[in-house]
Amino acid sequence: MMKPKVFEEGVSHRQGIDLDLEWVQDLQLRTHQGRTMPIASIKSYTEGFPRQMLISEKEKEGPIGYLLYVILGTNVKIIDMAVEPYYQRRGIGTMMLLPLMAKGEGCSSIIRDTCLEGQLLFRSVGFQCIQILKGYFRSPMEDGYYFLKEKAPPLPPTKDKGPTTKGRKRPKK
Q1: Could you tell me the pTM of the whole model?
Q2: What is the DSSP string of 36-105?
Q3: pLDDT tens-digit profile of 36-53?
Q4: Which member of 11, 39, 79, 154 lies 3.0 to 4.6 Å from 68 by CB, making a disulfide possible if both were Cys?
């Protein structure tokens, strides 16, 4: 039997602002094996809809995680995310992903081959790796794993009340 997911208490989410950019880049250095996105690239995801940056904050402590994403039609593409090492494995990443997954008909992300934590997080909320992209990342050269989560289409309404035997003949043997 699986244990229920326990989330860190006192965490809230807000949209990212320009003042968060240096902190995001600093967190990338600490969590992405020294790789960072240029501030101009990060900023491009914070300027206007549909590009967004979500920040998770802990009461009285400030930002503890971020998620960059783009809304493309009815789908959400997750560009990058990270959580402060001290707060990892406490449900912060899941708390950021779940509302995004509800926004569109599908949600996707490409995760580095060496980012096992990210792969496990995405699998834990129902994403499936549907393709390995050879040499997708260039610095350093590394494969990317394309993860996808699609919403099931709603079932059409039905007037059927379920199976019944009334008025049916038994099949002949």
Answers
A1: 0.72
A2: ---HHHHHHTTSSTTEEEEEEEETTTEEEEEEEEEEETTEEEEEEEEE-GGGTTSSHHHHHHHHHHHHSS
A3: 666 666 666 556 545 577
A4: 79
